[in-house]
Amino acid sequence: MTKSLFLAFWYSALFPAGFALCAFALYSTYWVDRWSLMRTWARQPFLGSRIATFSRTYFYPIAVAAMAIVSAYAWSGFPYDNLCGNDFIVNSTYVGTFTAETLENPPKIFNVTVDEGDPLYIACSQNLISRRQFPPHPDDQPLFQEWMTPDQENMVEFTGWVGVAVLIVIGLVLLYGLFSSIGSYFISDYSPSGEDQHIPFSTVKSMAGYIPEVKSSVYAYPLVAVDTDGLDPEIFGWTDPNRATSYYDLTKDAIDLVGEDRLEGRHVFSIFSHDSPLVEVEEEIPGAEDGDHSEDDEDSEDEEDPKDGEGPKGMESPKDEEALKDEEAPKDGKEPKDGEDPKDGEDPKDGEMQKGRGDPKDGDDPKDGEEDPTAVG
Question: Could you tell me which residues come within 8 angstroms of residue 239 by beta carbon, excluding any fewer than 6 positions away?
């Protein structure tokens, strides 16, 4: 593709139809390669985009500059016969008919007729490149050996200065790219992309660090090429439900196989560290919006802390419960009337029972199989 494009650029002034042929060749190559890639070609090794980047950065600008410069020289060389005319006419000595032959083998013989008043032509060189003239200009023609027409002189002057401008622009672009690539080793050119969303990395559920890992067809999860001690399992981006992350730690395998003494002081594995900050996370109440609180929360805020020896508000301590029982116990010797409940502090007499209940005599127990006469009907 690059050769076809370069040839079309190089001979664009002499053969303008080369652009159409080059376009057809590139179009045909695209469809043939596409079919072969999907149907017949085997998978090739991954080469990346370095070749395309190199062509876009260096080849195409140089090809455009070459087209501009070579086109100016091509226009200056027309008609490529190395004959230069002048204002003189032929001498009368050369008037007449002459026999001439070519240098071919066998030679071709033909007649040449020279009339009076015919212009005089002399042999000259129409190649301005051999004369080391840059850029090509009509003034570079030797005196009395001009061969360019007025229109040709205008075209050569225009294309020559355009070629100089294109060469300067492309040269500056290439120099800028060269100095930028060299300066990147000494000057940082990092610039953040986007705006800060104020979301800490440690609070992201799907966080995953750049940890060196080795994929294996034997294990379902990748092998880790760093020391996993002290690392948060969430930083790996994957979790084995059956084994800990240290199970896939290659550093521990290396210690078992080689020995810790032989690995001490050697930089064999990469170093990775992650310091998780302490982040306070407020738990949201389900169904409650911002600024809303339940009544229970408001009541709990209004309640005061209980004093020493006292229970929470609304609850009595064990001593208070015993005092209440003593106060509520009915007094002996008083009996409520029929149909009435005993008043506070009164207790039914011995041997009597409340309405609707029977009180068995002392020592009388119901026999086996008999119902208790005091049971409520």
Answer: 233
